[in-house]
Amino acid sequence: MSRLRYWKLTVEDVRKAQYDQKKVLIWEIKCPKDDKGAVFGVYIYRNGTPWDYDSIKGVTFYHNMIEQDEVDKITKFLKEKFGGEPAEKGSRIFLKGSREIYAPNEIADLAVQLGNNFEVSTELTIELENFSVEEQEKSNLPSGKILPIPGK
Fold first, then answer.
1. Is the dihedral of CA 25, 46, 92, 75 positive or negative?
2. Cβ-contact 128, 2 below 8 angstroms
3. How far is residue 106's CA from residue 86's CA, in Å, rounded to a whole number?
4. Does residue 60 form part of some domain?
5. In whole angstroms, what is the distance from residue 45 CA to residue 62 CA?
6. Structural domains in the chain (count)
7. Which branch of life, at top level (predicted)?
8. Which strands make up the sheet holding 39-45, listed edge to edge?
9. Domain range holding 28?
10. Whole-number CA gyration radius for the chain
11. Which of 43, 44, 58, 114 is 20 to 30 Å from 51 by CA-CA measure?
């Protein structure tokens, strides 16, 4: 199975993208708050996010150097949007069983909403599997932002 990661994507890059949603393994919206390391990121692993020896399906977010009241606001925002039951493990919040999205426009819209609601910039990453050269060319994703994942 071959895998490719498109990284450092903008909202505009993702909004115009075209791909088979079933080929998305992971997407992430990284939201830096400042240049001192305060950041949070929202993501979905198609096969579930690891929690010890289990995998949890649904939206997950991580946070670093973010005040607890803002973590609570992010959790509330994501729960209202996607549903699911919040569960915390370290610096990650899982929304167990939440609705999952993979469409480019939905991911781009979420990035805009996160940027506006939490006053952050956004950087997007999408990892796809078995994404042929022909699909890459038709995807409208920038070829200069491909990071091949070796060994897969």
1. positive
2. no
3. 21
4. yes
5. 13
6. 1
7. Archaea
8. 85-89, 92-96, 60-64, 39-45, 24-32, 123-129, 3-9, 146-149
9. 3-131
10. 15
11. 114
